[in-house]
Amino acid sequence: MGKKYYLFEDSSELAAQLAVDFKSAVEEKANSGESLTIALSGGHTPKAFFEILAEPPYREGIPWKNVIFFWGDERCVPPDNDESNYKMTNIALLSHIDIPAGNIHRVLGEDPPTNEALRYEKVIGENVSSGGNEFPRFDWIFLGMGDDGHTASLFPGAHNLKEMQRICVVAEHPETGQKRVSITFPVINNAKRVSFLVAGEAKAPVFKEILEKGSEPLPYPASMVEPQNGMLEWYLDKAAAPEL
Ligand code: 6PG
Known about the structure:
Blueprint: E1 2-8, H1 11-31, E2 36-40, H2 46-53, H3 58-61, E3 67-71, E4 73-75, H4 85-92, H5 113-127, E5 140-143, E6 168-172, E7 179-183, H6 185-188, E8 193-198, H7 204-211, E9 231-237
Parallel strand pairs: 1-9, 2-3, 2-5, 5-8, 8-9
Antiparallel strand pairs: 4-7, 6-7
Helix pairs in contact: 1-2
């Protein structure tokens, strides 16, 4: 359904606009009595966005009972570990808002990765309606992009880039060997809306290649995000996209 680029002066402006967009998306769903199924990204970029949502007017202004949170990927560490995406989100947002506990589906990073990937794909399958095909269709998936072009925990050259059956896979960080649980491309590309949040000059070289991507495939998983029947959005700051 298309691709949009939103360019901001800096990451704070990006976060501020994203909070406005998030509130209106939730309100639209809530007005029809429905909930929004969201897969959150990890890393550092979304933190400023979460912190804005944890403050007025968003903390009280968003109908949180109409928001259902999942994670697009998680590090296989306990929820109180500084590496945990859940921990970052809980500190920045979840611990400040009145959201039903049942609306938060965290990856159990403390459990054995293979078991947890199987459990989590069941959780997603049971709580996210499909779009008429066999894969769950999230209302909104947030993604970051690593300096190497990875997204979620789908890293360049990884065998699971070709995974076309599973909803979740066990991934491994190529440098640290850290195990992760990640959603797969069939799920990402089945979403109604996919938004990349990309800030900082370290992302600029890869983003430029993706922006100018011709028909040749690129070695960057982020370039493989192409929602089949959904909107792809890039929320970028000028440092990451000086040429836009
Ligand atoms: C993770 C993420 C990962 C992240 C990118 C960008 O668990 O690390 O989900 O895909 O989004 O690495 O991270 P930054 O926002 O820290 O640059």
